[in-house]
Each structure stands twice: as C-alpha cells, then as structure tokens.
TrEMBL record:
It comes from the Bacteria. The keyword RNA-binding does not apply. Belongs to the sigma-70 factor family. ECF subfamily. This is RNA polymerase sigma factor, sigma-70 family. It holds the Pfam family Sigma70_r2. The lineage of its organism: Bacteria, Bacillati, Chloroflexota, Dehalococcoidia, Dehalococcoidales.
Length: 170
C-alpha cells in the first residue's frame, strides 16, 4: 500500500507538471517537427511515457521538468528517424499571440525572418541550445542534462550562438 501511495503522489505531481509543461513541450516539438498536430501528439506521448516510467523514476539531481524534456527530445529524434528526414520549422511560423496592430505584426514577422536567416548560420548544437533555452524556457542546467553537457558548456554555447546572432542582426 505504501508504494501505491507513493505512485499516487507521483501521478499527482505529474498532473501538475502536465499543466506547467505541456504547452512548452508542444512548442518545442513544433519547432522540431513543423506540424502542430504531430507536435501535440508527441507532447501527449511524453506524458504517457512519463506515467509508465514514474515507478522507476529517480530524481538523481535532474528535475522532473528536465526529465520530461529529455523524453520529448528522444521522441523527436525517433520521429525524425521514422520520417528519415530532419525538419525544423521556420521561426516565423511559430505563432505568438498578440494584440498588436497588423502593421506591428508585419514588422515582427520581418524581424522573425531576419532571426531565422541568422539562425541558419549557427551549428545544429547551437540552434538546439537556443530552442531549448528560449523557446522551451529551460535553464542552462536542464539543457545540459538533456544534451549531455555541463551547465558551463551550455552557457558557452549559448554565448557563442548569441554572439553570432548579434553579429548577423546588428
């Protein structure tokens, strides 16, 4: 009965994490697969797999949120393996809710196109760091855990990526 109570607590925690992370995980998946429905399906699968693995999950210094993004990352990799192609979505296609005027929205779209072109000059690793840090909102430590790098290496990669972006955008 003790294990059942523990599992119930973890399931409740996962439900809270679903509320907190589902949209972020779906956005991350969308930037990687380029199709909203597939991204939502992948995000749902993240939580289905997490629920199946809750009893074996041990928080060895990795927060549950980072664990969920690790699952998402693995599912995206599997998705691309199945499709035998690597797709990313243009930054301009990421929907941003806004009350701005059409002129302001057009200006933002032009700026996003500039950012997209600048991101093409980054390495794949740098693009992934930028996606995880700024689109998914993960900390550098969480990104490091996902990519198998130290927090410092992620910060260095982020710094180098931002420096390249700045040089292209300014």
């Amino acid at each position: 009965m003790q294990k059942s109570d523990s599992l119930r607590q973890k399931e409740n925690k996962l439900a809270g994490l679903f509320d907190e992370y589902y949209d972020r995980i779906a956005r991350y998946a969308y930037t990687r697969v380029g199709h909203r429905q597939e991204a939502e399906d992948l995000a749902s699968e993240v939580f289905a797999r997490a629920l199946k693995s809750l009893d074996s999950f041990e928080e060895r210094g990795l927060p549950m949120g980072a664990w969920l993004f690790k699952i998402a990352h693995n599912l995206v990799v599997d998705f691309h393996r199945r499709r035998a192609e690597r797709k990313t979505v243009d930054v301009e296609d990421v929907e941003i809710e806004s009350d701005d005027s059409p002129a302001e929205q057009a200006e933002r779209k032009l700026e996003m196109e500039r950012v997209q072109r600048a991101m093409e000059n980054l390495t794949e690793e740098q693009r992934e760091i930028i996606r995880l840090r700024f689109f998914a909102g993960l900390s550098s430590a969480e990104v490091g855990a996902l990519l198998g790098k130290s927090d410092g290496a992620v910060r260095e990669g982020q710094s180098a990526a931002l420096k390249k972006l700045r040089a292209r955008l300014i």
